[in-house]
Write a structure and sequence with these properties.
By secondary structure, the chain is mostly helical. The protein folds into 2 domains: 116 residues, no CATH class; 87 residues. 85% of the residues lie in helices and 0% in strands. The protein is built from 9 helices and no strands. The radius of gyration is 21 Å and the shape is globular.
């Protein structure tokens, strides 16, 4: 019973976040940072929650790698200035964004991530890091407005936001690389000592 409740929590979290983003659409889309970083990022998170629910309810996905390719392509499309502009002008593009980002980015990533080898995860993180840095550079150096619905002064702010995310990703990766192995080694040492003590007691 508790397990089923835990499983359903992921679905409710994803659905509530999606509804909240729909209700705050006009607020987040007032700025380029709110649109490209907060709204799109949280839409990915809502899909990720739903993907966690699907993992618990249906088990492992067999199309993990293909789903990641689809997720990368979909996210790249919605990072294009033309796509952001189109979502503001055309209701069909706005609907497509609210449907495709959770279902084609967040869900596939959640479905595949837990089953990926460590090397593949590292490559994906490296690609995310390089994409954020590149996008930041594009928006920082652009001499003209890339998004017609936003001011030119919004673009450096978005560049800084992308670079801030890149720095955060780099810090997280550095911590995982340096700290996680030590923690695992300590756990193994503790487990080995406990096992040896158990053997001594039995003797």
């Amino acid at each position: 019973m508790k397990k089923s409740r835990t499983i359903s929590v992921w679905l409710w979290l994803g659905a509530l976040l999606w509804v909240a983003l729909l209700g705050t659409r006009s607020i987040l889309e007032r700025s380029l940072v709110g649109h490209a970083v907060l709204q799109v990022g949280l839409l990915v998170l809502s899909g990720w929650c739903i993907g966690r629910w699907l993992n618990a309810a249906l088990g492992r996905s067999r199309a993990g790698e293909a789903g990641l390719v689809l997720a990368a392509f979909t996210l790249a499309v919605w990072m294009l200035p033309r796509s952001l502009d189109a979502a503001l002008r055309d209701a069909s593009w706005e609907i497509a964004k609210f449907v495709s980002v959770p279902l084609l980015v967040g869900v596939p990533v959640a479905r595949a991530w837990a089953h990926l080898p460590t090397i593949v995860r590292g490559l994906l993180w490296a690609n995310i890091l390089s994409m954020l840095i590149t996008l930041g550079w594009v928006y920082w150096t652009a001499p003209t407005r890339l998004c017609n619905n936003y001011l030119l002064t919004d673009q450096p702010l978005l560049a800084k936001a992308f670079w801030g995310l890149a720095a955060l990703v780099a810090i997280v990766l550095l911590v995982r690389i340096t700290v996680a192995p030590r923690v695992c080694t300590q756990h193994r040492a503790d487990a080995a000592s406990e096992s040896s003590l158990t053997c001594i007691k039995r003797v």
